[in-house]
Design goal:
By secondary structure, this protein is of the alpha/beta class. It contains 4 helices and 7 strands; from the N terminus they run αββαααβββββ. A hairpin with a 5-residue loop joins strand 4 and strand 5.
Length: 222
């Protein structure tokens, strides 16, 4: 295996083919987001401003999504005008942030990714397995990942939304915890992925990830 990024950039379909982060190596705390932003994420300077501050709705009762200072997740999109789409997109991003947080903290029981994933679902199982692989291999993640080109499809109003977005990991790397060094990748095309996450509503403006699919090297996202 030549390249090892974090979970959704490495799964071929839902919970199959989960790899360890660094997706470019061998086989073998932090600031919180400002008010009005997704906690743990930063807005890209090129992103259009969200029309409302609803990205943080309900967040004060949720888990800590802060990331280490060497790790950032940038969301480069405008908030959808449809409430179901906005809520599902917001919490899909939080699920990804929570996964990165758990990897960085080396904690497969971290509250964040679990809070934004459905119990016993493919999404949670894949995330948990990926975190444990990182821990077992003394690997973490570092750098900046950019989430962009979003698309949301309402399957059932107020219940199910399929969220898609591109992930740019050109500046996102694995980190060897024994040496503290980042792990460079040798497959540039693998730095681009498309994520598809099935989000379900659990009430109170909260959405959780249930199904997960990612395509690494997706031409649409390059």
């Amino acid at each position: 295996m030549k390249r090892q990024h974090a979970l959704t950039a490495c799964v071929a379909l839902v919970a199959t083919s989960v790899l360890v982060a660094g997706c470019g190596g061998d086989d073998e705390k932090s600031d919180k987001a400002d008010e009005g932003k997704i906690a743990g994420a930063e807005k890209s300077p090129s992103a259009k401003p969200s029309p409302t501050p609803s990205a943080t709705a309900g967040q004060q009762d949720g888990p800590d999504l802060s990331l280490p200072k060497d790790l950032k997740v940038v969301t480069d999109w405008a908030e959808p005008s449809v409430s179901d789409k906005a809520g599902a997109l917001r919490d899909a991003a939080r699920f990804v942030i929570g996964l990165d947080r758990a990897i960085a903290r080396q904690d497969a029981n971290d509250a964040a990714y679990r809070y934004y994933s459905y119990p016993a679902s493919n999404a949670r199982k894949a995330a948990e397995e990926n975190i444990k692989l990182h821990v077992d291999h003394d690997r973490s993640v570092t750098g900046t990942r950019r989430l962009h080109k979003d698309f949301e499809q309402v399957v059932k109003a107020h219940e199910i939304v399929v969220v898609q977005f591109c992930v740019d990991d050109q500046k996102y790397f694995g980190k060897d915890l024994k040496t503290g060094k980042k792990i460079e990748g040798d497959s540039p095309e693998d730095a681009y992925s498309k994520y598809e996450i099935g989000m379900v509503s659990v009430g109170g403006n909260k959405w959780v990830a249930k199904e997960l699919k990612a395509t690494t090297g997706d031409a649409e996202c390059a």
